[in-house]
Queue: 4 jobs
Job 1
Amino acid sequence: MKRFSGIRRGLLLLVLATGTTLAQSVDQTKGIGAGVQVLTQTTKQLQDYFRPMTTVMYVIAAIVGIFGAFRIYSKMQAGDQDVQKSAVNWGGSVLFLLAFAAILEAVFFQAP
């Protein structure tokens, strides 16, 4: 008899625990839906923020390229020996800015 009463108690605890768990999962599903909505809204806000930033990055890369071209031209006219090194440095900086802007676009924007 004691053996069966222990099994009954165990089954009763199992049923009560399962009912409580199911009630909590229904409440969590509502919370998950709200969380998904917040994440979607935040993603849209980030995309709206990064679009102008990539445009600014392209403009900065163009300005750096023009400034670098003038610096390289002035070094060539002055007869400096490190013109090639300077050209590689300025070109590398422009390529870095362009690559960074392209990576930002690839990571944060979805194709329409």
Job 2
Amino acid sequence: MWSLLKWLVMRLAIVRWIFKVLGLVAFLPIAFLLKAIGIPLLIVLAVLALPVLFVLFLLGLPIFLVLLVGGLAMGALFAALSFGILALKVAIFVVLPMWLLWKLGSWMFRRRDGVARRDAPAQDVPDGADPA
């Protein structure tokens, strides 16, 4: 009986270990993507915020205020970049497919000479009749 329980526990441990390894493999592309985006984003933030810190040091502000203002500048830049990435996501995943469908539809429903088709031709109104 004990050997059966030991065998069962070992099998469950091996299964849990396999699931952990496969879970890590599943999250590996996400980690690489975050690394590929996050490090350049931090470089951009540092390049834009370091001149502000340098100017504040030259003006003679206390270190605490310099770091506070530098952190606020980096936070504002990060917020602007975040909103820009959000706008880019909306543009790519919403606006671009709609625009492509519009272009495809207008291309499909045009005549051979390049002029758009009309569903019904315009009717001529006699001169003496009231159009209303």
Job 3
Amino acid sequence: MENFIVSARKYRPSTFLSVVGQSALTSTLKSAIVSGKLAHSYLFCGPRGVGKTTCARIFAKTINCLNPTADHEACNECESCKAFNEQRSFNIHELDAASSFQCIFEDFGGTTFICYFHIGNHRKT
């Protein structure tokens, strides 16, 4: 049981290109990365199963990547990407308000709110 991984996490897309059905969102997020115009926060909201967490995780990983690829995806080779992949990154924090703060948001019907904090900009520009 130690190596058990929920299938939604095991097969979760890891790049913007591999996300299906969210082309408007992924192109908007990639445009923000390309232009270097990042907002101070992003709120991903919507019904269950539409890719909120997936897109937020890919976005957070990409903006913290030290060596983004030519198509503006995370490299998966730098220390920031490795830390993210091994779930030991101090720059990225996932907050699932539906389960962490259930009493506050119970009127929202279990909608998941995910917040990622971009702490500093250690990427060389």
Job 4
Amino acid sequence: MIGHHSEITIMNRAILLLLATLACPLTYAKAPAAAGNPPDETQLIEHGSYTNKDGNAVHRPAHSKSGQKPQGATAQCRDGSYSFSQHHRGTCSRHGGVLAWLG
């Protein structure tokens, strides 16, 4: 037989677990939104895209031919490439991490 104190402890743990689960999506904020402008492919060295967790096609990180921030970039990676990511999590993960978030 479970005592009254044990039932309260189990209920408190369940509530804490639920709150932690609900809070997790808030931990991973979105990266600054791209200005709604896709990058100009003629100004980029690398090409290609991936589908993000929202189902959106996003340009893969790429170096710009001029070395300047390309249109729509949201972060600069440590390897000098620019990311067009729409979320912080995973941004520049194969490019040495994020050097700077761009606004």
